Amino acid sequence: MTDFPNLIDGEWTMGDEQLPNINPSDITDVVGMSARSGIEDMGRAIDAAHDAAEGWRYSTPQQRFDVLDAIGTEILARREELGRLLSREEGKTLPEGIGEAARAGQIFKFFAGECLRQQGDSLASVRPGIEVEVRREPLGVIGLITPWNFPIAIPAWKIAPALAYGNAVVLKAAELVPGSAWALADIIDRSGLPKGVFNLVNGRGSLVGNHMINHPKVAAISFTGSVETGRGIAQACAMNMKKVQLEMGGKNPMVVLDDADLETAVGACVNSGFFSTGQRCTASSRIIVTEGIHDRFVDAVSNAVSALKVGHALDAGTQVGPVINGNQLAKDLDYVKIGREEGAELVCGGERLDLEHDGFYMSPALFIGTRNEMRINREEIFGPVASVIKAADYDEALALANDTDFGLSAGICTSSLKFASDFKAKSQAGMVMVNLPTAGVDYHVPFGGRKGSSYGSREQGRYAAEFYTTVKTAYIQP
Ligand code: NAD
Fold first, then answer.
1. Which of these is catalytic: 74, 114, 247, 459?
2. What is the C-alpha to C-alpha distance for residues 45 and 63, in angstroms, rounded to an integer?
3. 10 Å Cβ neighbour count for 2?
4. Is 247 designated active site?
5. CB within 6 Å of ligand 1 — which residues?
6. Are 170 and 140 in contact (CB under 8 A)?
7. What domains lie within the chain, and their CATH numbers?
8. Residues 367-383: tens digit of each pLDDT
9. pLDDT of 6-20, one tens digit each?
10. What's the gap in Å between 306 CA and the centre of ligand 1?
């Protein structure tokens, strides 16, 4: 068994309490013991970051490049081992875990490059003899709060830009997946980054997370997680006048039109609905299908969903791993019950599975004959549950796709350029996919949504600079 301590001012500590990290594929497998800090540890980490921020602010682009490049290199070299730890504690399949670890490495490499590609402008003034300079400066200490479903990629896509643009960091990772956060902190600790610039403090969100969002030395909060938590964080940040960025839930639509290639549409819906056990903010849980293809599509997709192999995340051949924990499994099964009570027809899955290992297994569930007003189509379930909604034509499908409180990702399967272009223009989501799953994005371009899914500026790619820097305009009369 491994310890997953916190990193505060360059020192490893196990905190006030410890928490077992349980493998959701096999609850008899305790992955390790994680530190559970209290507010004193959080306070020390913020003080350390605040003290170290001044030095890192004035580090050279070369120093920053070297640190981020070293972190990216080590993650990529150890992707299999890191991916295995991730899959063991989170439950996504091993190829998904390795893929996520690799992505974290690529993100650090991307932002290493950004350290050298600085942004700024030098302009002529409207007044004679004066020069104007617009430059980006770091904010100071950034507090990062992350969810359990991408245990290494989400911390990476917040830490890398924060450091690249010269900020100090305190990360509060999700308590269900402390191993990946610890492994990442260990790599960062050995990268040559001065002590105190990066700190990890795991503990209860309502305690240490809450202390972080209200702390006067924290300049900004970047949060990914549920809408409910995000709303509270936005309120606290507004009261404290902190910069804030929130990435939250989704109820992402996938439109399948009569002229879609059936195989492409089925593949995209199975991938975005059920891979990673449906536990992705970009998962498509509403499949909106036009009448002409509806019956053929339902036949093909229900066969494909029933054939998915559910099993231990680390077993070869597993396509869908377990749900993260008992609470989430109970919630998923409850939504299956709610869907049936609302009059939806369950064509496959939706049952608790007893497999060789004692884990949180459930068969992927597909509803048909659903209406967009049903709770299963309005509320984020965050599990392997998707529903089909029939639409008369493209116009109705588009209206249904946009009729949601969320707006993260939206997909369309069609061979028509006209409908694809129209959907791209009129979708009310932050990301649009044509003939592709709604989940699965690149790391060098912006990520984020609209409406209830996101708040504040975009994450990732060059757009990350908007959140992690503040602009200064300097006037100079030589
Ligand atoms: P959550 O909101 O329960 O927790 C997220 C983080 O917030 C955790 O680290 C938690 O400890 C912390 N937290 C909880 N209460 C807090 C408080 N009062 N103050 C400060 N921090 C607090 O979410 P979760 O269950 O870990 O993750 C699942 C959710 O994340 C889903 O809704 C999913 O859609 C969303 N998500 C969104 C994206 C995106 O980019 N849009 C990506 C992944 C996950």
1. 247
2. 23
3. 14
4. yes
5. 145-150, 172, 174-175, 205-206, 209-210, 213, 224-226, 229, 232-233, 247-250, 281, 380, 382, 408, 453
6. no
7. 2-248+453-476 (3.40.605.10), 253-434 (3.40.309.10)
8. 999 999 999 999 999 99
9. 999 999 999 889 999
10. 30
